[in-house]
User: Fold this.
Amino acid sequence: MPDTAVQEPRVRSRPPQEFYDAFYQTGPDTLGGKYQRLFWHPIATSESLLPGKTRPVKLLSEKFTLYRGETGEVHLTEFHCPHRRTQLSVGYVEGDAIRCLYHGWKFGPDGGCVERPAEPGSHSHVKIKTYPVKEFLGLVFAYIGDGPEPAFPPFPAFEGEGVVAVEEEYFECNHFQSFENDWDLYHADWTHKMGEIHGPTSGPGRHNFYLSMLRSSVYQETDFGVTRTLEVPGGIKNISVLMLPSMVRLYIPTFNEENRRGAGPQFRDTYIIHVAHDDFTHSAFLTQLVPVTGQDAENYKRTHAEVMAIRASRPSTAELGRSVLAGKTTLADHRDHPVFVALEDTSAQVGQGVIVDRTKEMLGTSDAGIIYLRRLLARELTLLADGKPTKDWSTDWKMPKTEIPR
Assistant:
């Protein structure tokens, strides 16, 4: 029999309340941070890192230097030069090496020092740490754990032809709040009501639409994640896949500006991955397949580029979210924003606080997905805390067949 929305995952654990801190903590010495370090995480979109360019990145409360060599290869190293501890990302890329801005110390892609211009003798004793990085579906992934590299890619590629579109959205709250939001099906009824791209746009049918999906939802643990199966009114069977530590694969509506322009199909096969910079901020990386080919693909790329240019010219959703939450503006003031849906999510999730106090919540029957996630993660954290192996989630699977709402 499949697990239902209110049953516990199959292995008993300590109560989820014991892990409320671990749910959001990301530091290397915390239980939550140790669990996060068992996985690959995206740290940038591939298109945002051009050959010869560097950038500082923060992942799981640690700082790093990311750069793409002149050959096109991507590298991840320590944040500081070991000489006088200045920031390496402000230095120079030479081939696949990086040279420090301060005194010219140069480090190869393996982290070994190859030149110290003012220092005589050997450089073999000088080395900086490097980390595995790989590119997949338009994203740059990194592994910063201490153990062997996990299987890569961390999830299957999309099936079929089309354009892979990627984006990154910055949130000024803890990553776990956004991941919980993915398990909170019912939030779309109200959080995204104004944006009018989720479900029926008006009338009493909207509420019944979401209640129907909520009441038909069934959660079932598999060897690769948790499937959420539900029925959309009209007999449409829809399936999403939710994966630890903080990923979901599902079909979602086209974002606001592209929807207004009719760019590509209305629903896209999408991965959403929540990646913690630290305990207080995170990015949501989206990579999705837009199933268009030939001239339709060229037309879509052109429209997508126009939309991204509009996004770049407008205040970010994080900035506007601060304004809305401070009462200086309202959501209605920003309905024309190209990714208004992200501003709706920002207002709800950051509105919980940078780190929500879960001890003060009043959960209800509509929170079955949240409860399931917390029990599942509590199980894994119990195993990790007891020195036992956590579940080895499969990365080789196919997206279950699902029907797309219209």
Summary: The mean pLDDT is 93. Residues 294-313 form the longest helix (20 residues). The domain at 163-385 is CATH 3.90.380 (Naphthalene 1,2-dioxygenase Alpha Subunit; Chain A, domain 1). The two ends are 30 Å apart (CA to CA).
